[in-house]
Amino acid sequence: MKRTARAAEIVREYGPFPGVDHIHGVSYDGRRVWFGAGDTLRSFDPASGKPVRSIDVAAHAGTAFDGRYLFQIAGDRIQKIDPKTGRVVATIPAPGGGRDSGLASAEGTLWVGQYRERKIYQIDPETGKILRTIESNRFVTGVTWVDGELWHGTWEGEKSELRRVDPRTGDVLEKIELPPGVQVSGLESDGGDLFFCGGGRSGKVRAVRRPKRGSTARSRSKIHQAARSAAGRR
User: Fold this and answer.
1) Cα Rg of the chain (Å, integer)
2) What is the pLDDT of residue 224?
3) CA–CA separation, 50 vs 52, rounded Å?
4) Are strands 4-7 and 172-177 parallel, antiparallel or unpaired?
5) Which residue pairs from 159-163 have beta carbons closer than 8 angstroms and sit at least 24 positions apart in sequence?
6) Could you tell me which of 106, 113, 30, 31 has the C-alpha nearest to residue 73?
7) Domain containing 186: what range?
8) In the chain, which residues have pLDDT < 50?
9) pLDDT at 156
10) What are the residues whose beta carbons fall under 8 Å from the beta carbon of 179, sequence distance 6 or more?
11) CATH code at 223?
12) Which of 26, 47, 88, 181 has its CA 20 to 30 A from that of 81?
């Protein structure tokens, strides 16, 4: 497949948030966007942009949601968190031993980005065992899956991109180029036509348009549905 590159369409910016000076991992549970903020895991409503909740756990890198539990990288371990109670119910070793970056949940496994090592690991969420290794030629920040596509963020110097890669070979299939100076520190899909991108030291989360596929019109993204529903209730 021919690799394509395009400029990012930034749909919306959230933040900066009070008391947050760096965005680490980013995830989405279908209603709220979660992000790692160092000493806390926080969430906000993507329709209104208003903060919703904060959980007191270490949140130094990637964040993921598997449909029931949140997963959060904290140093050399990955914490499994019950979002209802905020309790850490299990931990597993992180494959990079403290050098991990992005995190995603897909296919019943976890996918862990390695920043400077330029790798993505697929691991067993119960044991941390490495099941697959994908090589990249750029630093890896956030990682996400959507509609069978594997995407990861990059951030080197003043240049950041979102990249769709072949999950078997790591070959780059598509690139979305962020404006110069815009950082990508975490990545998540809303399951529709948007990516949520952590903004690193800016303290912001940005919604970036995901490219449409073919000539078939995609359904309106969940964030836009939520915004319209909220407007209808006013």
Assistant:
1) 16
2) 44
3) 6
4) parallel
5) 160/184, 162/8, 162/187, 162/195, 162/197, 162/208, 163/136, 163/138
6) 113
7) 4-233
8) 1, 215-234
9) 85
10) 7, 8, 10
11) 2.120.10.30
12) 47
When divided into structural domains, the chain yields a total of 1
Residue 197, token pair as written in the block: 């991108």
Q: Determine if the pTM surpasses 0.85.
A: yes
Sign of CA dihedral 112, 78, 197, 141: negative
85's tokens:
């109670």
Structure confidence at residue 116 (pLDDT): 85
| Sequence-distant (≥ 6) Cβ neighbours of residue 146 within 8 angstroms | 189, 191, 210
pLDDT confidence of residue 142: 94
pLDDT of residue 234: 36
Q: In what order do the strands lie in the sheet with 70-74?
A: 63-65, 70-74, 77-81, 88-93
Place of tokens 């991990």: 100
Q: Dihedral of the CA atoms 133, 136, 142, 146 (nearest 10)?
A: -70
Residue with tokens 């303290």: 203
Least Cα distance to 132 among 109, 163, 159 occurs for 109
Reported as a single tens digit per residue, the pLDDT across 108-132 is 999 999 988 999 999 999 999 999 9
> Which residues partner with 65 through β-bridges?
70
Q: What is the pLDDT of residue 3?
A: 64
DSSP per residue, 173-219:
EEEEEPPTT----EEEE-SSSEEEEE-GGG--EEEEEPPP-TTSPPP
